[in-house]
Amino acid sequence: MSAAVLLPGGVWAQERSIGSQEDDFLIGASVVSGNAHVGTPQGSTTDLKPLWAFQLGPLRVSRSRASALMSVGREALETGLSTEFKATENVSLSASLRLDNGRSFDSDPLLRGLPDIGTTVRARLSARRALGPRWSWSMNTDHDLLGRKGGLRLGTGVNYAYPYSDDTQWDFSLGTGLGNARYMQTHYGISLKGAQATGRDTYQLSGGLENLRTGINFSTALGDRWVAFGGLEMSRILGRAARSPLVGRLATHSVTIGIAYRSR
Q1: What is the pTM of this model?
Q2: What is the residue-wise DSSP string for 207-220?
Q3: Torsion (CA) 205, 209, 212, 217 in degrees, nearest 10
Q4: pLDDT tens by residue, the chain, 264 residues
Q5: Is-contact 176 156, C-beta < 8 A?
Q6: Cα angle vertex 139, ends 2, 179, to 5°?
Q7: Nearest to 229, CA basis, from 64, 74, 94, 22
Q8: What is the DSSP letter of 199?
Q9: How many Å apart are CA 65 and CA 80, to the nearest integer?
C-alpha cells in the first residue's frame, strides 16, 4: 500500500483553484491480478483492494490511484496527502508524504531468513512538464525519512493522454526507475547477516537502473458520481537487480479493474 500526505498549501492551493474540490471524497475498490519480481516464481495472485481519497479544505489524503479518479474531468492530483503548484504555464511541481509498508520474507521459501524491510515514510517530490495537449514528461524522487534502509529512488517517464470521449480517457505511459546503493541493496541484495541466515552467498549492489515500466489505463465516468477504471501495467527489471538471486521473475504484469463513488 502507498499513501501520501502533505501539509496545506496556502498560496499553492490558490494557484490550483483547489477550493473547487473542498470537502470532496471518493471511495471504491479494485480487483488486482499480478505478480512480483522478487520471490519464488509462481502464478498471478488476485486481491481485492480498497481505495479512497478525501479533500478537506486545503488538506488532501488518498490511497493508490484514488486521487486521479477523484479528478476525472478535473485536474490530476498527487497520490496521498499532497499539495501542488504551477511553476510556469507548462510546468507543475508537487510534494507528498507516502507510507511504504515494506516487505516480510517469512512466507517465501526463496527469501525466508532474510531481514524484513521495515515500514517507513517516504517524502516525494515530483515535476511534470506538458509537451503538448496530450503528451507530458514527469520526474520524481522519494526518500526514506525514518532511516529504515529504504534509500532514495528516482523515476522518469512520458505519458500520452487520449480523451476517447467527454467521459472516458485512456492513458499510455513509459518510464524507468533508478535507486541509490542503499535502496538497491535493501531490495535486491544479500548482506552478510542475510547470507549467514540463509546459507547463500552475499550479493552487493551499487546504485543504478531498477526497471523499465509501461502501462495502459482507462477511466470513465458512469454518471455524475460513479467512476469505472482499469488497466494493464508491465515491468522489466534491469541491470544488476535482474541478476540478483532474490529475483524470481524478470518480467511482471498487473491487471486492474474497479469502480468508485465520489461525492460530486
Answers
A1: 0.83
A2: SEEEEEEEEEEEEE
A3: 100
A4: 444 444 333 233 333 333 344 568 899 999 999 999 998 887 789 999 999 888 777 667 888 778 778 767 554 444 445 556 666 788 989 888 888 988 888 888 878 888 889 999 999 999 999 999 999 999 999 999 999 999 999 999 999 999 998 889 999 999 999 999 999 999 999 999 889 888 889 999 999 999 999 999 999 999 888 999 999 999 999 999 999 999 999 999 999 999 999 886
A5: yes
A6: 65
A7: 64
A8: S
A9: 9
Q: From CA 78, how far away is CA 73, in angstroms rounded?
A: 15
- The SS3 assignment for 32 reads strand
CA atoms within 13 A on the CB side of 146: 13
Q: Is 185 helix (H, G, I), strand (E, B) or coil?
A: helix
Q: Which amino acid is at 189?
A: G
| Cβ–Cβ < 8 Å for 8, 245 | no
Alpha carbon 261 to chain centroid, angstroms: 21
CA–CA dist 70, 54 (Å, integer): 9
Nearest alpha-carbon partner for 38 in 149, 121, 112? 112
C-alpha closest to that of 172 among 130, 216, 212: 216
Q: Report d(CA 205, CA 76) in Å as an integer.
A: 36
DSSP 20: G
What is d(CA 158, CA 130) in angstroms, rounded to the nearest whole number?
Answer: 10
| Other beta carbons less than 10 A from residue 257's beta carbon | 13
Residue pointed to by grid coordinates 473542498 = 22
- Are the C-beta atoms of 62 and 3 separated by less than 8 Å? yes
